[in-house]
């Protein structure tokens, strides 16, 4: 059973000495002195706690002068927001969890969880920075892939793959979203990625109520068939690569004739190779090596 039950999205009031907390020890240790008489403070003298998501302000009383000090359990930004709340939203996206998963995970660990709605809001607020970061990472990786290819007098070679949110079979594809990536064969890094979505929750919300849809950053960028997303994404990515001076010479992809012909129409010199098991293994190995290097640094 979950230790902390949510009551209408919020954890019921709990005392500072119940459950676990996520604490930055150094930040906490540096604050454990009285501002008035400079005496060291003790955690056993906590008299109250104000929780803000996964961060807390602890009310600690000084044994000597009885003054009370608010002590933060972790770093906060200039507006006073706890860094841990952005980190947990980032971790949620990185590990492919949703707000409810995070809440269940933390509750089971006996850590009072944040409100799922707050997590969703955080996710939205960091999504744009994350996309900028991903785009920069792709540009750097493309330049690296090109440099290695040039040094070996090889053509820029990459592997293309697409997937859909729901499973498609040979004759039926009806997923509302599709995603794809181009991975460099030499670096094993993602050089570009793309997404196609038929739906947008904001549009749906207003259309469902027969209201005029207000101006908004719309998530829907595809009106065609689900299968048609694949060649469109391949062409967009290869075009973007070309625009940034990293022309793709060889592309490995599964045997999809629509994608090949669409690419050939625009890039007559591109060579298409079928993805072999050896190639998948090679890319996977390069990718693993890359991850090991980036984990060490
Ligand atoms: Zn004191
Ligand atoms: Zn929309």
Map the helices and strands:
Blueprint (H helix, E strand, L loop, with lengths): L5 E2 L2 E2 L13 H7 L14 E7 L2 E7 L6 E5 L10 H12 L4 H10 L7 H36 L5 E8 L12 E8 L5 E8 L3 H8 L20 H15 L6 E4 L3 H10 L4 E4 L2 H20 L1
Parallel strand pairs: 6-9, 9-10
Antiparallel strand pairs: 1-2, 3-4, 4-5, 6-7, 7-8
Helix pairs in contact: 2-4, 3-4, 6-7
Bound molecules: zinc ion (2 copies).
One zinc ion (ZN) binds next to helix 5.
How would you sum up this structure, described in words?
With 297 residues, the protein is an alpha+beta fold. The protein is 40% helix and 19% strand. The chain has eight helices and ten strands. It has helices at residues 25-31, 83-94, 99-108, 116-151, 201-208, 229-243, 257-266, 277-296, and strands spanning 6-7, 10-11, 46-52, 55-61, 68-72, 157-164, 177-184, 190-197, 250-253, 271-274. Strands 8-7-6-9-10 form a five-stranded mixed sheet, with helices on both faces. Strands 3-4-5 form a three-stranded antiparallel sheet. Strands 1-2 form a two-stranded antiparallel sheet. It is elongated, with a radius of gyration of 26 Å. Residues 292-297 have low confidence and may be disordered. One zinc ion binds next to loops. It comes from Mytilus edulis (Blue mussel). This is Mutator-like transposase domain-containing protein. InterPro entries: Mutator_transp_dom. Residues 19-286 form the Mutator-like transposase domain.
């Amino acid at each position: 059973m979950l230790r902390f039950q949510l009551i209408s999205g919020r954890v019921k009031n709990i005392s500072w000495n119940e459950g676990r907390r996520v604490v930055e020890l150094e930040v906490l240790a540096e604050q454990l002195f009285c501002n008035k008489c400079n005496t060291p403070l003790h955690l056993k003298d906590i008299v109250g706690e104000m929780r803000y998501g996964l961060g807390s302000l602890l009310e600690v009383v000084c044994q000597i002068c009885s003054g009370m000090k608010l002590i933060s359990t972790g770093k906060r930004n200039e507006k006073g927001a706890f860094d841990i709340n952005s980190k947990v939203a980032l971790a949620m996206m990185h590990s492919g969890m949703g707000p409810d998963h995070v809440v269940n995970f933390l509750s089971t660990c006996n850590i009072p969880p944040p409100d799922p709605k707050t997590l969703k809001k955080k996710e939205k607020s960091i999504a744009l920075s994350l996309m900028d970061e991903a785009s920069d990472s792709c540009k750097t990786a493309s330049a690296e892939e090109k440099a290695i290819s040039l040094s070996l007098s090889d053509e820029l070679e990459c592997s293309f793959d697409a997937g859909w949110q729901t499973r498609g079979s040979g004759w039926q594809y009806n997923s509302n979203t599709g995603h794809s990536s181009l991975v460099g064969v030499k670096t094993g890094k993602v050089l570009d990625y793309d997404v196609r979505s038929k739906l947008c929750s904001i549009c749906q919300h207003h259309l469902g109520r027969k209201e005029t849809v207000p101006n908004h950053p719309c998530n829907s960028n595809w009106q065609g068939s689900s299968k048609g997303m694949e060649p469109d994404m391949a062409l967009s990515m290869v075009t973007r690569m070309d625009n940034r001076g990293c022309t793709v010479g060889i592309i490995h992809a599964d045997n999809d004739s629509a994608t090949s012909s669409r690419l050939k129409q625009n890039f007559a010199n591109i060579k298409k190779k079928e993805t072999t098991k050896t190639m998948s293994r090679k890319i996977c190995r390069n990718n693993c090596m890359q991850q090991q290097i980036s984990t060490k640094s």
